[in-house]
Amino acid sequence: MTLADRVFAQIQDAIVKGQLKAGVKMSEAELTTRYGVSRGPLREALRRLEARKLLTRIPHVGVRVVELTIDDVLQMYQVREVLEGMAARLAAEHVTEEEVQGLKQLLQQHQQQTELQTGKGYYQEEGDFDFHYRIVKASRNEVLMQMLCGELYHRVRLYRYQFSVTEGRPHKAFAEHSRIIEAIEAKDGEMAELLMRRHISAARQNIQNHLVGEKR
């Protein structure tokens, strides 16, 4: 990895985990010290994070961590529910035995996480280490891949992780993942879609309860 790659991954991880809070201003001087890089690699990393819509640049103010409204988040989850439900149904039609075994192994890896075992969170790295990403890939639908694995994907990861820390949610989410895999393995597209939609709907309701509670 180049220095820019490394600092990009570190800052993205910090944003997703909420260590860099929504709306906080990004100070280049502070970040160069924190991550031990010069301004050149740091600025390249920040540009890439802007492209992923995890940072936003405000004229005469600077770069801040993206901050979405409650409506923005809930609308994003409404779209996810429909599109990822479709992806699960298509995955059940097209998935290979090797992909099914890969999904099972992935959940076994997730199960070893200390955060998940203690019920404190359910963190998934991006790409092939992410259950949802694997399902979308297994759908074999290029349009769904572009829509769900592009810009939307990285913003979704931010909210998926930060609201997985709600009491009881990590274990429930893991169990829901397991049932979705069972339906996909059984080639039951209708059930896979139903379970995925319920899974994302439950996550959306969890986020809504949390955000509304914070406003009160």
- Rounded to an integer in angstroms, the radius of gyration calculated over CA atoms is 18 Å
Count every helix, treating DSSP H or I runs of 4 or more residues as helices. Answer: 11
How are the strands of the biggest sheet laid out side by side?
Answer: 1-2
Helix-residue proportion? 55-70%
Assess the beta-strand content as a share of residues.
under 5%
For the biggest sheet, the summary is: 2 strands, antiparallel
Distance between the termini: 44 Å
User: How would you classify the helix and strand content by structural class?
Assistant: mainly alpha
Mean pLDDT: 88
Listing every helix as H and every strand as E from the N terminus to the C terminus, the arrangement reads HHHEEHHHHHHHH
Overall form: globular
Number of strands: 2
Unreliable segments of 5+ consecutive residues? none
Write a brief caption for the model:
This protein is 69% helix and 4% strand.
Characterization of the model:
There is one protein chain. By secondary structure, this protein is mainly alpha-helical. The protein is built from eleven helices and two strands, in the order αααββαααααααα. Helix 4 (70-94) crosses helix 7. The mean pLDDT is 88.
Question: What's the arrangement of secondary structure elements?
Answer:
Blueprint: H1 3-16, H2 28-35, H3 39-51, E1 55-58, E2 62-65, H4 70-94, H5 97-111, H6 114-117, H7 131-138, H8 142-148, H9 151-162, H10 169-185, H11 189-215
Antiparallel strand pairs: 1-2
